[in-house]
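Sample entry (254 residues):
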Amino acid sequence: MKRTIKVMLFFAGLVAVWQAFYFAHVWSRVLLPSPLSVGRYLWGAALDGTLGSAIVVTLKRLLLGYAAGLALGLPLGLLTARFNLLNDTLGLLALGLQTLPSVCWVPLALLWFGQTEMAMLFVVVMGTLWSVIIATDNGVRNISPTFARAAKTMGSRGLHTWLKVILPAALPFIVTGMKQGWAFAWRSLMAAEIYVTILSGFGLGSLLNDGRELNAMDQVIGIMLVLLFIGLIADKILFSPWERFLRRRWGTAI
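Predicted structure, serialized as tokens:
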């Protein structure tokens, strides 16, 4: 309860500082709207359905692309950890492409797929895939070799060792990679939604870009706050339970 109160006081303090900057005219009120103005925009967008439909469209694209990135990245990461040839080729490619800014995939997606949902999916998958491959590979390589040796003395061989021993031992690293992949997927999707216009669905990135074009800073800041809130909720629902379980499982919980 005390932690919750402290968190609430912290964010209330941030809002108070924001309001103080607004009253002090540090920037033009066109460039820095008040918290009340941003709240009015979010309330109106929620009432007319604009905000809700944009959240649904964005989350649908994000979850689909993220799932595809995980489905490709996890087995490829295990393969690069298992075979040196793949590590020297695919692993090196993944390391290089992970450093590539997500927005760089957008022109390529537009040329290959046009203004379609497939372009969105491609950008999100590219944002997710490489970090998951690297995290899985590093996770397998950083576990103690004692685990595999002990399993072999008890009769474990081949695929059984990988699925029952090595993969569970590498899970803390893999979950960290999945969390990083989620963050990259978010950034990739926002870049795609800002630059790719698809009439079949306008997401949060489209609303963000519309606010920029209209000089509507209350809309820009409001959508940024929505993105921040969704990111925090996703972390609490998707990743924090896994991390707590793994810390307890491996005896690293404080």
